[in-house]
Specification:
The chain is built from 32 helices and 31 strands. With 986 residues, it is α/β, with parallel strands linked by helices. The strands form 8 sheets. It has a 7-stranded parallel β-sheet with strand order 16-17-15-18-19-12-20, sandwiched between helices. It is globular, with a radius of gyration of 30 Å. The structure holds a DNA duplex (13 and 13 nucleotides).
Length: 986
DNA sequence: ACCGCCGGGTGCC
DNA sequence: ACCGCCGGGTGCC
């Protein structure tokens, strides 16, 4: 069991508990109670956050003449161990900010430092006070940072070799002096660390980071291209203008200045002749529901190259027929040149942007005049619709559908049509679809990363979580003129293309983080990675917050001219999560984590004003953020109907109460034993297990019946027993209603497997790790050794029914309360739609019975459903037709942020979530853009139960968290113990 | 390197 | 002189 390793590895997390997360309303950070209660969390990287300055030491860099890396006065340098150096295994390289080697640390000092670095006793950072004009050696000022408990060891090690650190009080400690921007000036002007701000000040400052909309470039508005049928709201016109400005921007990136014939970085004092590239893109961090998707589509259509709209052909019937003929013709065999000539006369380049380097193509796409001509073609404007209203698609005709069948039979992309979608065929995401068919042509247009010129780039890659993939296709259909040839390819499913030529023909390619990561790890060929994109857009961009996750690496390895991150939660998990995002944006020098840490992350977490200033100006220059309460010209961005939350207290029946108390007493007994043994914290998994049971009994006595009784004991049995136990444990994880996530990809579990150390991952994720680290692969959560053969898979679908066969259905107090409310509503107005939310899918199943009995038409959405069924469920529920479902049974975390359930005006939360953020997100699914009615939320809470206690602790945590900033502040063990006592009334 | 270090040449004042 | 001193060769790790 996982807690066995807690003593050895301070950052062990039991995934069993990982999903039960609490919410920090300020940082919008989700954190698990386990991390909180044990005062742990994060990865080894966080050691750097809590580092203190041990002191400084002057040393020498030698061998300058052998290397090309140059440095300026006061420039920061990085130290890098070089254990395989053939002359000295203690060798330490010194690199400049660009990663070019400058020299080596002189060998005597290196011999002493190597030990410290290899054992991670300290992080050693260098600043070269006098770096320019040194031919052979140069001095370097070294700062030693590390955990306080390692300070003595470091000092001892150094003094054994005759080195002595100057005490930290003598130095500023950031490697540069706050606002002057001169790296390293501090060493000669020693001061105590810059004026430290209080937590409160920091919080205020941080709030300001995203709220400043006064600048001109963020308030200017811009109209979208004609092909965008939905009129943009004022704030969306602002985002469009700002994004177009960012994409066409020719300025130097933040913190760079042009000086004489060099470009200077004012933070690191690095300089180079080459002009640093600016980010053509940034972060659109608008709150959920402000229309990031629509705005992004508008950018794609509006800013092709140099501010001109994407050249798109207007479809006409004649064109379509010829096109369709062409299609069939080409599918018969490899195309020949004559055919292409024909093609071009019928359908110019729009559907085939990157065919080859022939002149005709270059002319049509990259010349300045040509795109304008195209625009005139689409000038016949369709009547615009109001935002949120659905645009009926007129263009789809049967020949297109036929064509799609033809195409998909050959494994090619299929034509998307609304008609087909209504029949439920083309909506299947399992196969590639395009909105309008790209011309098939014989493999002449293989695009290569290097040889294409930037003007020829056309395709935008959009990467999103699977749960919002359909949102993109829906919105494309909803907002884009159907009469326009917008080539769209959904890169998903087993039939996805391997042919870059197919991608090169697209305007938009949609895929998911998981598909991207899978392709990336399957190294063989990932067409997405062997391609230069015009744009890459990350939807729910905080998905890549974990720098070690495969998904993040796969994303960072994409090649694109312009890069966008869409996210509603800019700093979801404290400052360090920002790094992956900046790294994606390729902002020099922050793509290297060391420079990010040294210049921003650590100074800010230590309360340095200069660091915060830098962070502010950085964020300001690349981020646009509006909240639901932001205003444009004095008016709120959005006016949503009211949202009211009621708590309805439930009194259990005597019978239920008896069950509750017996479970409670049993748990109490076990946990009291841990108290007396003083092992509460090491048995925390059991504590949460007990809480889970109590929460379940509050809902329905049948819910906790299938819990494995073995949770309270340890020990090993036969391999078969172990296997059974692991499967049980995994099932508990999967069915606990917490919508477990994989600690590697941080996404929902996909093909869950459990390790012998009882941690659950996606099979592809953990296999990747084992492959990469073999032969010594370790569990990413507990560092225990893992092997491929030891992974236990979850047996398929013997599910609830077989587990508990003939248990007769009974009601419960909560079910009665719900049914009472639903029947009441129906009496008032039979058209009212309600969402019934629980963390326990089994509970939802139990609720189905009385719903059916009372004649409710309902639908259901939970994490176990395939994408196709999900889409169906949502569409049925959202339909306003008579006979459409009036109740949706929803598992708390199903669907993700993109889920739109605005048809509902009532939400019933059957059980409180650990994590108020999850509740809020859930409410936002119906209380969002498009909601016309007031929304009423009813939370059912059993009085005098663990549920009430959960609310209390949540409130307390909210308060506590509101005062915290950035880094996690683990509560004292006294607090932890008290919390457990509160929860269990001990 | 306008240094340090090495090793050969050399040796009263 | 088993030294000192001189001056040329030489130079990261």
């Amino acid at each position: 069991m996982a807690w066995k390793y807690l003593n050895d590895f301070s950052w062990d997390l039991d995934p069993d508990l990982y999903g039960d997360r609490l919410y920090n309303p300020f940082t919008r950070e989700l954190y698990s109670p386990l991390e909180e209660l044990l005062g742990i969390g994060g990865t080894a990287d966080e050691d750097i956050d809590s580092a203190v300055l041990f002191g400084t030491l002057r040393g020498n860099v030698v061998g300058l003449r052998y290397y090309t890396g140059v440095v300026n006065n006061n420039e920061m340098v990085a130290l890098q161990r070089e254990p395989n150096n053939r002359y000295d295994m203690n060798a330490i390289k010194v690199n400049n900010v660009n990663g070019e080697q400058v020299g080596h640390i002189k060998k005597e000092l290196a011999a002493s430092l190597a030990h410290i670095m290899d054992n991670k006793l300290a992080q050693i950072e260098g600043v070269v006070p006098y770096g320019a004009h040194n031919a052979f050696t140069m001095p370097v000022l070294l700062s030693f940072w590390g955990k306080a408990e390692n300070k003595e060891a470091v000092l001892r090690n150094l003094s054994l070799d005759g080195f002595k650190l100057a005490p930290p009080g003598k130095s500023l400690g950031f490697g540069y002096s706050g606002t002057s921007g001169k790296a390293g000036t501090s060493y000669s002007a020693p001061v105590r660390a810059a004026v430290q701000m209080t937590t409160e000040q920091l919080k205020t400052e941080f709030d300001k980071l995203f709220e400043d909309l006064k600048e001109d470039d963020k308030t200017r508005e811009m109209e979208a291209a004609e092909a965008v049928l939905t009129p943009l709201l004022p704030h969306q016109k602002q985002s469009l203008a700002w994004m177009v400005l960012r994409e066409n921007n020719k300025e130097l990136p933040p913190f760079w200045e042009e000086r004489e014939d060099f470009f200077y970085n004012t933070i690191t004092n690095f300089a180079e002749k080459k002009r640093p590239e600016n980010v053509l893109g940034g972060i659109l961090a608008d709150d959920m529901g402000l229309g990031k998707t629509l705005t992004t589509l508008a950018v794609i259509l509006t800013n092709f190259h140099s501010g001109k709209p994407l050249p798109l052909e207007k479809k006409s019937n004649q064109l379509k027929e010829e096109y369709s003929l062409q299609q069939k013709h080409n599918l018969k065999g490899p195309s020949v040149l004559e055919t292409e000539e024909e093609n071009d006369s019928v359908l110019p380049q729009s559907s085939c942007p990157k065919r080859d380097k022939e002149k005709k193509f270059t002319n049509t796409v990259s010349s300045d005049s040509e795109p304008e001509e195209k625009i005139t073609l689409i000038n016949t404007k369709a009547p615009k619709t109001q935002p949120g209203s659905r645009k009926r698609r007129k263009g789809a005709s049967s020949d297109v559908v036929e064509d799609s069948a033809f195409a998909s039979a050959l494994g090619e992309s299929a034509t998307y049509s609304k008609k087909a979608k209504r029949k439920g065929t083309a909506s299947a995401l399992g196969k590639p679809t395009t909105y309008s068919k790209a011309k098939k042509k014989g493999g002449t247009a293989v695009q290569s990363k290097k040889s294409e010129s930037e003007e020829n780039l056309r395709a935008t890659l959009i990467i999103c979580p699977l749960s919002v993939l359909s949102n993109w296709t829906d919105q494309l259909e909803q907002h884009i003129d159907p009469a326009v040839h917008l080539n769209t390819y959904v890169y998903y499913g087993s039939e996805r293309t391997k042919d870059p030529a197919v991608l090169s023909r697209q305007d938009i390619v949609l895929t998911t983080y998981n598909v991207l990561a899978n392709d990336y790890s399957a190294k063989s060929n990932s067409p997405l990675h062997n391609f230069k994109w015009l744009r890459v857009v990350l939807d729910e961009g905080h998905t890549i917050r974990n720098p070690n996750a495969l998904q993040t690496k796969a994303v960072l390895d994409l090649d694109a001219q312009r890069r966008w991150i869409l996210t509603g939660t800019p700093i979801q998990n404290s400052l360090k999560d920002l790094w992956s995002l900046l790294s994606f944006l390729k902002l020099k020098p922050f793509t290297d984590r060391e420079w990010w840490r040294r210049t921003i992350q650590r100074p800010v977490t230590m309360g340095d004003q200069g660091g915060l200033k830098r962070l502010q100006s950085l964020i300001k220059s690349i981020t646009l953020r509006r909240t639901k309460t932001s205003k444009v010209k004095g008016k709120p961005v959005l006016t949503l109907p009211e949202r009211k939350v009621f708590i309805q207290h439930i009194t259990l029946t005597d019978e239920e109460n008896a069950i509750y108390h017996s479970v409670k007493n049993e748990s109490k007994a076990a946990i009291s034993r841990y108290f007396s043994e003083g092992t509460v914290l090491t048995h925390y998994a059991d504590v949460l297990g007990a809480l889970l049971r109590l929460r379940q009994v509050c809902c329905h006595p049948h819910l906790c019946a299938s819990l494995p009784p073995s949770t309270f004991e340890e020990g090993n049995g036969t391999p078969e027993q172990l296997r059974t136990k692991l499967i049980e444990k995994m099932k508990l994880v999967l069915s606990s209603g917490s919508d477990e996530e994989c600690a590697i990809c941080l996404d929902s579990l996909n093909l869950p497997v459990i390790t012998h150390c009882a941690h659950v991952y996606c099979k592809p994720c953990i296999c990747e790790v084992i492959q990469r680290e073999k032969p010594n692969a370790k569990c990413p959560l507990c560092r225990k050794e893992v092997e491929l053969q030891q992974l236990v898979e979850c047996p398929l679908e013997d599910s609830d029914d077989t587990e508990k066969p003939a248990q007769e259905w009974i009601s419960s107090s909560k079910i009665n309360a719900l049914m009472h409310a639903l029947l009441d509503l129906r009496k008032q107005n039979p058209a009212i739609k309600s969402i019934v939310v629980s963390q326990f899918t089994k509970f939802l199943s139990l609720i189905e019975v009385p719903l059916r009995k009372s004649g409710f038409i309902f639908t259901r959405l939970d994490g176990t459903m395939r994408q196709k069924k999900r889409t169906e469920a949502i569409q049925q529920f959202q339909s306003s037709e008579a006979g459409s479902p009036t109740v949706m049974l929803l598992s708390l975390k199903a669907g993700g942020v993109g889920l739109n359930l605005t048809a509902a005006s009532q939400v019933f939360l059957m059980d409180p979530a650990w994590n108020p953020a999850a509740e809020d997100q859930c409410f936002d699914r119906c209380h969002r853009l498009g909601q016309k009615q007031d929304v009423t939320i009813t939370k059912f809470i059993v009085e005098h139960s663990v549920e009430e206690n959960m609310l209390k602790i949540q409130d307390k945590k909210r308060e506590l968290a509101a005062g915290a900033f950035g880094a996690k502040k683990p509560s004292s063990s006294e607090t932890k113990i008290n919390e457990i006592k509160t929860l269990l009334d001990l």
